[in-house]
Amino acid sequence: MKNAMRFVLVLVCTLPMIILGQTEDKIMEQQPKLYSFSMKTIDGKDKPLSEYKGKVLLIVNVASKCGHTPQYKGLEAIYEKYKDRGFMILGFPANNFLRQEPGTNEDIKKFCTLNYGVTFDMFSKISVKGSDQDSLYQYLTKESPVPGAVTWNFQKYLVDRKGNVVEKFTPGTKPEEKEVIEKIEQLLSEK
Predict the structure, then answer these.
(1) For residue 179, what pLDDT is reported?
(2) pLDDT attached to residue 1
(3) For residue 55, how far is the Cα from the chain centroid?
(4) Mean pLDDT taken over the chain
(5) What pLDDT, in 10s, does the model give residues 101-152?
(6) Which of 95, 109, 185, 189 gives 101 a disulfide partner, CB atoms 3.0 to 4.6 angstroms apart?
(7) CA neighbor of 123 nearest in space, from 57, 47, 174
(8) Is the pLDDT of residue 154 over 70?
(9) Distance from the Cα of residue 65 to its chain's centroid
(10) Domains of the chain (ranges, CATH numbers)
(11) How many CB atoms lie within 10 A of CB 53?
C-alpha cells in the first residue's frame, strides 16, 4: 500500500512536467547559469547564488593591498544607496594579482569592516584566473555575455534581476562613476 501511495504521489508531482515536456533538467536549464553556483561566504557558510534572484548584482573580485583597495569605500556607498531597491554587491577576495590579498578570510573580513565599514556580502577567498580558477569565474570569463580575462583586482560584473550578466567594468572604473551608476539605476528600474 505504501509503495502504491508513493507511486501515485510521484506521478501526481511529475505528471504536469511530463505533460508539458519538461523534465527537472530542462527546468534547471531555463534558470540563468549564474544561479546554479553555490559559494562559501567569508564566514564559511554555503550560499547558493539563486538566493539573489530578483536582485541587481555587482560581482567584484577584491583585494586588501591593491591600489584600487579604496574602491571599497565607493562600493559600500553605492550598496547603502541602492540596497533598499534590490541592489546587492558580492565581494570575492582573490590573491591572483601580485599577492595583494594574502590574508585569511578572518583577516580580510576584519580589514574590510574596520577600514571601510563593509556591510555588503563578502565571500571566501577564491582564484579568479589560472589553473585553479573558481567555476563562477570560469563562467564569467568564458561563457557569460561579456567574456574575457579578469585583468586585475576590482573588475566588476553587473547582473540584472533575471540573473543575466549584462556589463563588465574595468578594475580602474570606480563604483561611483557615472557610467556604473546609470547602468545600476537602469537595471533597478526594470522589473
Answers:
(1) 97
(2) 56
(3) 11
(4) 90
(5) 999 999 999 999 999 999 999 999 999 999 999 999 999 999 999 999 999 9
(6) 95
(7) 47
(8) yes
(9) 22
(10) 1-30 (no CATH), 32-189 (3.40.30.10)
(11) 14
- What is the C-alpha separation between 29 and 8, in angstroms, rounded? 27
As given in the structure block, the three cell numbers for residue 103 are 590574508
Residue type present at position 161 = R
DSSP one-letter code for 4: H
Residue type, 173: T
Of 90, 39, 86, 80, residue with least CA distance to 60: 90
Q: Is 86 helix (H, G, I), strand (E, B) or coil?
A: coil
Catalytic residue numbers?
66
Q: Please give the Cα distance from 93 to 74 (Å, whole number).
A: 16
Pairing between β-strand 121-122 and β-strand 87-93 as defined by DSSP bridges: parallel
The pLDDT score that the predictor gives to residue 3 is 53
> What cell does 182 get?
546609470
How many residues are there in the chain? 191
Q: What gap in Å lies between CA 140 and CA 62, rounded to an integer?
A: 15
Q: Hey, what's the torsion of the CAs at 141, 145, 151, 152, to 10 degrees?
A: -90
Q: How confident is the model at residue 24 (pLDDT cuts 50, 70, 90)?
A: very low
Whole-number Å distance between alpha carbons of 38 and 61: 16
